[in-house]
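Fig. S4 source data, part A: sequence.
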Amino acid sequence: MEGIIAAFVLLIMGSTLGSAKVINQGYEAIVEQTGKYKRTLKPGLNFIVPLLDTIVWEETTREQLIDIEPQEAFTSDSVQVKVDAIIYWKVTDLYKAYYEVEDLETALKNLVLTALRSQIGQMELQKTFSSRKEISQGLTEEIKEVTKAWGVEITRVEIQEIKLAPNIVASIEKEKAAQIARNAAKLEAQGVADYMRQISDVLKDNPKGQDALKFFLAQKFVDANYKLGDSPNSKIVFMNPKDMSEAVTELMVADELSDQIKDMSNEATKATGITQSI
């Protein structure tokens, strides 16, 4: 008889210990009985019916975060960008979070990505870089009602980084390089034009300007042919003997103009601020 009583006492004690469940602060738990929802356990000591009651999910009610990998999106001016975002969220209704949506975290990711692409698609590229705060606020407002039905509160969505796709970066750098080259060529052409204009003005005011100009052109002609012959690539140049003899003759008879031309060139160079030696 005493053995039966002892066994009964042990059974009661085991059932009591087995039915006691402690839920830590900041957590809640879902209890099902025979496959149906029964109740939600709050933090502290709780009792369930052994063998009949089952804790199917225990989840924190504190704020959590989901770091979304960089995702591609297109701006309103059709430029591809990569956006990196972080979702801050917490469960406010454990029942809805468990029963209203399958795979809560994946659902939150997909929802935020859809809203993010929508927000980026309404902005031009330049505006996206200066409107991170507006994008974050717009995302939070857009998905708030949907997540409320899931028993989840989105506290905020932070845009970590907005980056251009590598091919877009390469295209922009190429365009910048081309623009720099165009500007350099334009400045060089302007400098040459200004220089030649000053030379023209000096020659116009000089009585022997025409002779000096002939000397200048003849010298450049000979220099060009000299450089052509000095090239590492072999070349054969056929020249008009008359043109060659006339050029050499002009050089020989114009020695006395050399100093004068140098003076005029220096005068023009000083006027334009460009250093040039003939």
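Fig. S4 source data, part B ends here. The longest strand covers residues 152-164.
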